[in-house]
């Protein structure tokens, strides 16, 4: 692995007892200092991959390195270089947040003088709950406590597995602000999320896994550029009863009696040609709005294509 990669995964496979293949020959690198998105449908293999990196699941074949340390040959150093924020909310109800962070820091061998318990609680907006029982915290607070737990040993890599699931918008924004601030300090962030707009806004690069296989691994802007379908909203000069159909259209539907939404394949047509087709069908257009493709379009295209092929 070169120094430019925080995580290097090579030909990683996992077959569970019973024959289920969760990962199938997956290879990719996570560049140092990046925010890297790991996306895929439920059951795609994301959590298995994360659990292998965390040392909770044994790989069947292949290799993985964290900051140059092989997870099989040098598991202790590999674990010291990574912090994991799990998807499930796991906490001890009889410990306070401060006690929880002190305990976890001790398990990682962090000397008392070097622990940053209150700094971490302040960073995740839990300073005022430092000495309250963890069972009294809200769901969003418990998630933020998990982030603080993952950072007690100051790892250079942090993995967040669906960290904003069930968290309200304000708390999500606070969490992302903290993640971005960590990244600016040099921490490499690996993120899984079902909120695709978050991945599009935050991630420098995105890998997509489906049925245990890596089906995409590109810079975010390049991945969004892969969207084949584009949409135009056309305001007509009169109301119509049914949406016109044409071979040039992927889909045509009425949003209101005088607003027509047309989807088309940008590889076959451009917006001007679509407008010409509509006018040739006897309709007059008074306004045009285009919708740019986003990550959700790409994600659905890639995963549905693979599902059909599977």
TrEMBL record:
<keyword id="KW-0067">ATP-binding</keyword>
<keyword id="KW-0813">Transport</keyword>
<dbReference type="InterPro" id="IPR017871">
    <property type="entry name" value="ABC_transporter-like_CS"/>
</dbReference>
<keyword id="KW-0547">Nucleotide-binding</keyword>
<dbReference type="InterPro" id="IPR003439">
    <property type="entry name" value="ABC_transporter-like_ATP-bd"/>
</dbReference>
<dbReference type="InterPro" id="IPR027417">
    <property type="entry name" value="P-loop_NTPase"/>
</dbReference>
<protein>
    <submittedName>
        <fullName>Multidrug ABC transporter ATP-binding protein</fullName>
    </submittedName>
</protein>
<dbReference type="Pfam" id="PF00005">
    <property type="entry name" value="ABC_tran"/>
</dbReference>
<dbReference type="InterPro" id="IPR050763">
    <property type="entry name" value="ABC_transporter_ATP-binding"/>
</dbReference>
<dbReference type="InterPro" id="IPR003593">
    <property type="entry name" value="AAA+_ATPase"/>
</dbReference>
<dbReference type="GO" id="GO:0016887">
    <property type="term" value="F:ATP hydrolysis activity"/>
</dbReference>
<dbReference type="GO" id="GO:0005524">
    <property type="term" value="F:ATP binding"/>
</dbReference>
<feature type="domain" description="ABC transporter">
    <location>
        <begin position="7"/>
        <end position="236"/>
    </location>
</feature>
């Amino acid at each position: 692995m070169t120094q430019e990669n925080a995580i290097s995964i090579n030909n990683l496979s996992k077959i569970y007892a019973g024959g289920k293949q969760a990962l199938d020959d997956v290879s990719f690198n996570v560049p140092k200092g990046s925010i890297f998105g790991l996306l895929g449908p439920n059951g795609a293999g994301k959590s298995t991959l994360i659990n292998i990196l965390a040392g909770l699941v044994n790989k069947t074949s292949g290799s993985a390195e964290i900051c140059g340390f092989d997870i099989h040959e040098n598991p202790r150093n590999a674990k010291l270089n990574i912090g994991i924020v799990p998807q499930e909310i796991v906490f001890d109800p009889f410990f306070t947040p401060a006690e929880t962070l002190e305990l976890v820091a001790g398990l990682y061998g962090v000397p008392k003088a070097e622990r940053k318990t209150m700094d971490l609680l302040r960073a995740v907006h839990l300073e005022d709950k430092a000495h309250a029982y963890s069972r009294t915290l809200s769901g969003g607070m418990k998630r933020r406590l998990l982030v603080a737990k993952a950072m007690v040993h100051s790892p250079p890599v942090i993995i967040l597995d669906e960290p904003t699931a069930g968290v309200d918008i304000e708390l999500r924004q606070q969490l992302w602000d903290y993640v971005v601030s960590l990244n600016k300090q040099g921490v490499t962030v690996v993120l899984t999320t079902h909120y695709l707009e978050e991945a599009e806004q935050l991630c420098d690069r995105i890998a997509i896994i489906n049925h245990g296989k890596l089906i995409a691994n590109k810079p975010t802007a390049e991945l969004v550029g892969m969207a084949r379908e584009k949409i135009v909203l056309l305001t007509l000069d009169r109301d119509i009863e049914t949406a016109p159909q044409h071979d040039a259209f992927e889909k045509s539907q009425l949003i209101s009696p005088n607003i027509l939404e047309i989807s088309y394949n940008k590889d076959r047509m451009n917006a001007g040609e679509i407008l010409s087709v509509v006018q040739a069908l006897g309709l007059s257009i008074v306004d045009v709005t285009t919708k740019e493709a986003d990550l959700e379009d790409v994600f659905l295209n890639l995963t549905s294509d693979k599902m059909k092929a599977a």
